[in-house]
Amino acid sequence: MRRSFKFLLRPTRKQAAALTACMEEHRELYNAALEHRRIACRKAGVTVRYGDQSADLKHIRAGDPDGQGRWSFSSQQATLRRLDKAFKAFFARLRAGRTPGFPRFKGRGRFDTVEWPKDGDGCRWDSQPGHPTATFVRLQGIGHVRVHQHRRVLGTVKTISVKREGSRWFVVLSCDDVPAAAFTATGTVAGIDMGVASLATTSDGDHIGNQRHLAASADRLAAAQPDLTRKKRGSNCRRKAVTRVAALHAKVRRQRLDSAHKAALALVRDYGVIAHEALNVAGMTRRAAPRPDGEGGYLPNGAAAKSGLNRSILDAGWGVFLTILAHKAESAGRELVAVSPANTSRTCSRCGHCARENRLTQAGFRCTACGHEAHADVNAAINILRAGLALRDAAQAA
To answer: For residue 268, which of 331, 310, 329 has the smallest C-alpha distance?
Structure first.
C-alpha cells in the first residue's frame, strides 16, 4: 500500500532563505503558466496543454539561470502538472453541471508545496546515510537539509515534497510497498455515531470525548484577529500579526490531528469490524439558505444557530477523523463499513419504530411505541452497527 511520512525540517538560516526562494519561483512559474493558458485561449482560441508548457521549460531555464534555472527540472514539471490537474478538475466539474471554479492565480499565502516526483532526480532522501546522529534530505539548489525523523520510514520512497506551514518547513515522503501492520483478530464489532457533545459514541456505550480545540483557543484568537484588522496592509506589523494568527490556527490543527489519530487507533485496536455514518460534512456545514418573504425582505432562517452548529461540527473534525480511521483500518487489516445516516437517531434499536418524537433531547431517547429508553447516541450507534452488518453480509453473499 502507499503511505506518506511527514517530518519537520531543521534548515539553517541560509537554507530557509533558499527554500523560500524556491517556493516563490515555483509560484511564479505556476502563475505564468496559468496566464499563458488564459491568454492563448482568449486571444487566439488555442488550448495550451501540459506537454506544450513542459517543452518550453528548457528555454525558460536558459533565459533565467539565476532564477528558474537553479531548481530541479522535474520539480518544475510537477508544478506544471499541478496546474494541468486544476484545469482537468475544472472541466470535470463543468461537465458534471457543478459550479466550476476556474483555476486562480496563487498568492504568496496560497502556494506552500513543491514536489520532486522521483527520489534521486533533483532530490535525495537520507542523502548522508553514514551520519551517526541525524538524517538529511538533499534538494537541488538548497543543499543537505537536516530532518527531524521521529519514526522509521517504511517501503520505497517515490516522491518527496517540501511543505511550508507558517514559519515551519516539513518534508513529506510518499512511499510505495509499505507493509500492512495487521493487528490480531478480535472478532468484535462496533457501530460509531458521530456527535458534537462527544466526538464519537460506540454501540458498546463508550464515549470518545470532543476536545473542542478551537473553542479552547477562542480567547487568544479573539485578541489576535482584531489586532490583525487594525494593521495597515503591506506593513511589517501586519505580516507579524498574520503570522501570530496563523500560528494559533496551526496549533489547533495539530491538536485536532493528534486527537483524531489517538481516537482512531484505539477503535482499530479494539474492533475488527467498524460501522460508521457516511457523512456529507460539506453539505451539513453549508450556510443556511435565505428565505424571501415575497415583499423584498427575508424571513428568519436560523442562520445564527446554524452558524454555531457549523462551527462546532468543524471544530470536532468529523471528516479528518473518518479519513484517519479509514487509513488506520486499512493498515491494520480491519473492516470499515459506511452506512447511510438517515433516521439512525430517530429509530428505536429495540423495536425498529421510527418517529421524530423518539428523540427527547440531545442525549435522551425514549421510544413512543415500546417505551425503550437509552442514551440517544448509543441507540444510534446500535442502529448503525446493525445496518453495517447487513450491508457486509449482503456484499459477502453477492
So the answer is: 329
List all residues 6 or more positions away from 157 whose beta carbon is below 8 Å from its beta carbon.
119, 125, 173, 174, 175
**How far apart (Å, rounded) are the C-alpha atoms in residues 166 and 225?**
16
Q: Residue 212 is placed in which grid cell?
A: 473542542
Of the candidates 278, 299, 279, the residue with the CA atom closest to the CA atom of residue 289 = 299
CB contact at 8 A, 148 and 10: yes
- What pLDDT score was predicted for residue 323? 95
CB atoms within 10 A of CB 186: 13
Amino acid at 194: M
- Burial group, residue 299, by CB count within 10 angstroms (0-12, 13-18, 19+): exposed
Helices (H), 181-317: 213-216, 218-229, 236-270, 281-284, 303-316
pLDDT score, position 396: 87
Q: What is the full DSSP assignment across 34-62? A: HHHHHHHHHHH-PPP-HHHHHHHHHHHHH
Predicted pLDDT at 277: 95
Bridge partners for 365 per DSSP: 359, 374
Query: How many CA atoms lie less than 13 Å away from 89 in the CB half-sphere?
Result: 10
Contact 183, 269 (CB under 8 A): yes
Q: How many residues does the chain have?
A: 398
Q: What's residue 301's pLDDT? A: 85
Fold of 189-209+258-293+302-397: Nucleotidyltransferase; domain 5 (3.30.420)
Spatial separation of the C-alpha atoms in residues 123 and 160, rounded to whole Å: 8
How many Å apart are CA 206 and CA 352, to the nearest integer?
22
Low-confidence ranges of the chain (pLDDT < 70): none
Per DSSP, the three-state class of 112 is coil
Indicate whether this model's pTM tops 0.70: yes
Measured CA to CA, the distance from residue 227 to residue 118 in angstroms comes to: 44
Radius of gyration from C-alpha coordinates of the chain: 26
pLDDT at residue 305, as a whole number: 84
Residue ranges of the chain assigned to CATH 3.30.420: 189-209+258-293+302-397
Helix, strand counts (H, E) of the chain:
10, 16
**Which helix (H) or strand (E) element contains residue 74?**
helix 73-95
